[in-house]
Design brief:
It contains 6 helices and 3 strands, in the order αβααββααα. By secondary structure, it is mostly helical. It has 2 domains: 8-73 and 136-141, Winged helix-like DNA-binding domain superfamily/Winged helix DNA-binding domain (Arc Repressor Mutant, subunit A); 76-121. Helix 1 crosses helix 4. It starts with 7 loop residues before the first helix and ends in a 14-residue tail after the last helix.
Amino acid sequence: MFDDLSPIYLQIAERIRGEVLAGTLGADDPVMSTNQYAEFYGINPATAAKAFHQLLDEGVLYKRRGVGMFITPGARAQLLEDRRARFFGEVLDPVLDRAALLGISVDEVMAHVAAHGSPTDSPTTDDHINEPHTNDHRPNGDSA
């Protein structure tokens, strides 16, 4: 379930973000409490709480006092916007810089991209989005 490459709380937060992006968790859907999450995955409640606090700070989750935590309306759109900006800044811009160094024109890059099809022709490449989704962030397996 969790790998040794990054802290567990970051993996938890990224998994929830992935489920929001995939639409498995939508606006106002509940997520398990930190204690439920910790018990279900066999982790320390403080680890789950750290992930949830990060998501609260990012605006992905909101808290209803005495009720629980829920997916913030608009969280998916915000995550998509953030991921798109990161994609251009971290992936595409360096590719274009490297292409320029190699004397490859933007037109050549575009022709190569076009030959590989559009993003809608192939599945999403984010690993956490391609994982099976089980709604395991909802209390008692409820679906919203």
